[in-house]
């Protein structure tokens, strides 16, 4: 990968390689854009197969955060960090060393809990830096709010697709029963939805089967289920050339980041297959909305209203995509770019004045 070329093309401001021998740590902090505010994005720990895969993930996830904040009208920029490690090798020393790197950015980057990082890990990182959010638990953590946002997104997609507000009796396939997936299943079950679920963890699938009467399938069988909606709530890259031909769902609406393996190619393939795709960084904005509000002083009404906006934002994006014959992914990118461009012009005018 040509690093500077890639970074320039994707529009990143800064990429930090954080490393240390004792404790052993390798992490990448990617700051995509700070026009709207400090770069916000949670930290993921993952045993990437190589460093290029880690960099790619950090670059794409951080750019997604810029779009996410912009579409949700949150005055924050986009960033994301990845720690390259096996979850079993995670140590407090490693997390504290990482916290010192975050602190060195003096608030240009604000982070929290993502995949393979627990609330306790975030508290450990917090021993070294104040630029960590989402652990006060004043608001119950970001996952339940993210799930609520995804649930609202599903309703918006159903309304656009089938002109009905009634989702009762529909079937949803949920991939991944983690913090978000479990909460989403509860909302869906309470609203009369039939569930088909998959997770590598048989404990998690057994629990959701027991609680909500879900049908459990093998992880590689989740794509081909005869369902109305497919909800990816595990990892990214799952909408690709192997999985698209298997899909029977007419709507994709889930929490996972970077769902499209190749945004242009696979976004277009979904249009051709007449599948309505809810852009991931629009539908999964509940988390950033929640932690941002926690940071500025949590007011439940305000946070709730912003999450509810996900519904209207998605409807607006579906309409733009339809009117302009572009993918929903491109429509949401345009919305974000317009907002960022406007802020940039305002900033420059302020500097010039
Ligand atoms: N937690 C939050 O507030 C937010 C989460 N997200 C994204 O949503 C996704 C889920 O987040 P969490 O629930 O917090 O993560 P989590 O780590 O709690 O849960 C992920 C679950 O997916 C399962 N899984 C992994 N690969 C799978 C596969 N191929 N098939 C079936 N199951 C698989 C894992 O076993 C785990 O149970 C992630 O991509 C995350 O980046 C996005 C915005 C906010
Ligand atoms: O939507 C995402 O991918 C996020 O990273 C959201 C998020 C969850 N916890 C956080 C803590 C600080 C900044 C963002 C987040």
Automatic annotation (TrEMBL):
PROSITE patterns: GLFV_DEHYDROGENASE (PS00074). It catalyses: L-tryptophan + NAD(+) + H2O = indole-3-pyruvate + NH4(+) + NADH + H(+). InterPro entries: Aminoacid_DH-like_N_sf (IPR046346), Glu/Leu/Phe/Val/Trp_DH (IPR006095), Glu/Leu/Phe/Val/Trp_DH_C (IPR006096), Glu/Leu/Phe/Val/Trp_DH_dimer (IPR006097), Glu/Leu/Phe/Val_DH_AS (IPR033524), Glu/Phe/Leu/Val/Trp_DH_bac/arc (IPR016211), NAD(P)-bd_dom_sf (IPR036291). One of its GO terms (molecular function) is nucleotide binding. The lineage of its organism: Bacteria, Bacillati, Cyanobacteriota, Cyanophyceae, Nostocales. Its EC number is 1.4.1.19. PANTHER family: LEUCINE DEHYDROGENASE, VALINE DEHYDROGENASE. GO terms for biological process: amino acid metabolic process. It comes from the Bacteria. Keywords: NAD, Nucleotide-binding, Oxidoreductase. Residues 140-348 form the Glutamate/phenylalanine/leucine/valine/L-tryptophan dehydrogenase C-terminal domain. SUPFAM superfamilies: Aminoacid dehydrogenase-like, N-terminal domain, NAD(P)-binding Rossmann-fold domains. Belongs to the Glu/Leu/Phe/Val dehydrogenases family. NCBIfam families: Trp_DH_ScyB. This is L-tryptophan dehydrogenase. The active site is at 80 (proton donor/acceptor). NAD(+) binds at residues 176-181.
């Amino acid at each position: 990968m040509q690093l500077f070329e890639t970074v320039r093309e994707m529009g990143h401001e800064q990429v930090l390689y954080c490393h240390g021998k004792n404790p052993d740590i390798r992490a990448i902090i990617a700051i995509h854009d700070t026009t709207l505010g400090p770069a916000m994005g949670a930290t993921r720990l993952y045993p990437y197969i190589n460093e290029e895969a880690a960099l790619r993930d950090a670059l794409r996830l951080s750019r997604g955060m810029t779009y996410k904040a912009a579409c949700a009208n949150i005055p924050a920029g986009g960033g994301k960090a990845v720690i390259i490690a096996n979850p079993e090798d995670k140590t407090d020393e490693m997390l504290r060393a990482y916290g010192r790197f975050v602190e060195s950015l003096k608030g240009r980057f604000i982070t929290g809990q993502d995949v393979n990082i627990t609330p306790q890990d975030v508290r450990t990182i917090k021993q070294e830096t104040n630029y960590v959010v989402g652990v006060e638990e004043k608001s119950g953590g970001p996952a339940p709010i993210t799930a609520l946002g995804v649930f609202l997104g599903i309703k918006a997609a159903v309304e656009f697709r089938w002109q009905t507000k009634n989702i009762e009796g529909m079937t949803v396939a949920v991939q991944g029963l983690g913090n978000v997936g479990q909460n989403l299943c509860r909302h869906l079950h309470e609203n009369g939805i039939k569930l088909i679920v998959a997770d590598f963890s048989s404990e998690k699938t057994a629990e959701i089967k027991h609680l909500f009467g879900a049908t459990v399938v093998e992880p590689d069988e989740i794509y081909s289920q005869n369902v109305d909606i497919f909800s990816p709530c595990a990892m990214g890259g799952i909408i690709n050339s192997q999985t698209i031909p298997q899909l029977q769902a007419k709507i994709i609406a889930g929490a996972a980041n970077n769902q499209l393996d190749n945004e242009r190619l696979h976004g277009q393939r979904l249009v051709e297959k007449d599948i309505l795709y809810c852009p991931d960084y629009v539908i999964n904005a509940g988390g950033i909305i929640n932690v941002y509000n926690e940071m500025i002083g949590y007011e439940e009404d305000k946070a709730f209203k912003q999450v509810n906006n996900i519904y209207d934002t998605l409807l607006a994006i579906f309409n733009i995509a339809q009117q302009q014959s572009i993918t929903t992914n491109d429509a949401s990118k345009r919305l974000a770019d317009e907002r960022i461009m406007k802020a940039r012009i305002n900033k420059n005018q302020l500097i010039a004045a």
